[in-house]
Amino acid sequence: MKRLKVPPAIHQFSKTLDANPAKTLFSLLSKYRPESKQEKRVRLVQAAAAEAQSKEESKGAKPKVLKFGVNHITTLVEEKKAKLVVIAHDVNPIELVLHLPSLCRKMDVPYCIVKGKARLGALVHQKTATCVALTEVKPADAKALEDITRVVRPMFNENVALLKKWGGGILGSKAQARFSKQKKAAAGGHIASPLQ
Asked: Which of 27, 56, 134, 154 has its CA 20 to 30 A from that of 1?
């Protein structure tokens, strides 16, 4: 696959976030995991018990959790509600998320590409997730989000060279050996003939 010429739109998914910023990012994202099915069941049972005792149920504030799903995140980016979009690099077929980087750039929403759709899936209690987004964070985490945004903007949103760079085109070992032999022969001033 490395020998094929890869267009820039697809090649940009081979450049992912480095290990240290990714570690910081995932520690922030793990604070905003949505509730699991078991947690939701417990919450609903407690709410039903409180309602059965005719207590006044107080509706809490809307929970601040990760949003996931390509269609949902596309809508959030179009409405400029997303604060940070995280896309997996190994989505198959890649066409599912191919539009997201350019859309995020157009709407000026910071985004980054990370390794592993399974890592994103684990954050939202799924097997895999193509992308996740943060729409709002607690005031205590605002500084952490700002730091991450400051790191990912130059790497992804403002990196114009990444959009023009073609990938792949790596020759096989036999072809590389042949070209290096031809280059040595040309540098030596003569071309090796089969009779010598």
From this structure: 154
